[in-house]
Task: structure prediction
Amino acid sequence: MSDSEQPSVRERDRTFVGGLAWTAGGKWATQLVTWASVIALARILSPAELGLAGMAGLFHVITTMLAEFGLGSAVVQMRDLKHDAIAQLHTTSVAICSLFFGFAVLMSPLVASFFASPEIRWLVVANSTALIMTGFQSIPMALLRKRLDYRRLAYADASDQVVRSGVSVLAALLGASYWSTLVGGLAGKLAATVLVLAWAPFRFNWPQWLMVREPLAFGARVSISGFLNTLTRQVDPLIVAKRIGEDALGAYRFAIDIANAPADKINMLLMRVSGPLIASVQHDHALVRRYFLKIAEPLSISVFPAVVGFSLVAPDAIIFLVGEKWRQAIAPVQLLTLCAGMRALTSLSAQVLIALKDVKFQVRVSVVQFSVLPVVFYFASPYGLTAVALVWLIATPIVLVVVAARLIHITSLTVTDYARAMVPAVTGSAFMAFMIGVLQRSELLPVSSHLQRLMLEIIAGAFCYGAVLLLFRERLRSYFRFLADLRKRK
Result:
């Protein structure tokens, strides 16, 4: 690397570290609010009420993914788009989302009929008004990501989560029942949209096919991959709702929310930080490998112990926090939490591949998942929620290996470097799991107090994991030296 290139790399390093700090700080702060909201709603509402809201939410998640159409990703990844083309995409985004709002309204009676629940029709219609906000928000949000404006992105996301959580709990306390989560979701979406439009206003232009054709094609591939992934992740709740019932769906949705909440925050962090950063250096695979490893190792060190630890303490945590009525959610929470940790690494690799415009591979992986998993979910459902969650535990590591292999091939990353980055987290988590398992099977834990058991398990797990990390203190020091060097140069 020449001297003339070094300042730009250092500048990217500072942007990278600043982005992680802003985004991670915002995510973990709002995560506490989100967890508190989920627990409060579980205490106020019944599994059937949450299950009814979850049924309407299944359709909304799918239509939202389609309505976004990958246009935001096209703006971020296609670095040479002109302002006029972006303005045309802005108009296109609003038009597509408006069409999907109309589609959702027309489909609402069929959705209600499918679930044999008339209340769902109006839940779907009200939920779909968020699509209009998505249309106006998509391109301005992408521009903030393209500018690497992590501070404003963190504020927008925090406002969404805080308003969503607060309004949902308040509505539940006021007796809004299954409408609570919908009202909170719309309020949070509106708060974030107002902020994004204020920070990144952009004009509208009438779309011209020759100018929007290429970004539409790119966005379509991203949208298809995302749609199939989203649909695959919504099929299991759908099958649970139809073949087991509302109460089971409520418990399963609760398990999904608890298990995936940290991973979803991390995935959003990766999308916000790694996607635009990798896109800015997409033609330099040495830098791509550098940033991937600098994200992957700290990511595994922070995520693996959290998901493994929570999976082990879930029986005591769930009974203490939300009570006996959610006992059937314990086993799904344990299994889905482990999947969430692996999914975080898969998402990082997928973000790098998308930034390198290798979208067709993502589509192929999504097609295979969508072709296989729903069939397996269907045949597993008669055996209960645990069997459905177990399907994910088998499928998730397979997808992780496939996507990682593609990343290694595209970027010339070595298997040794990838494995070396995982060693501290895997070793520490394995030792922590062993010690907590031994503790749970001993007579040292109180029999009656779930709180006391939970606290002792957490303390023991944290101590064991920290002790193992001391064996890798030189690796950890290298990150501190990296940060100190950036601060000194700045």
Remarks:
- Residues 6-44 form the longest helix (39 residues).
- The chain is about 85% helix and 0% strand.
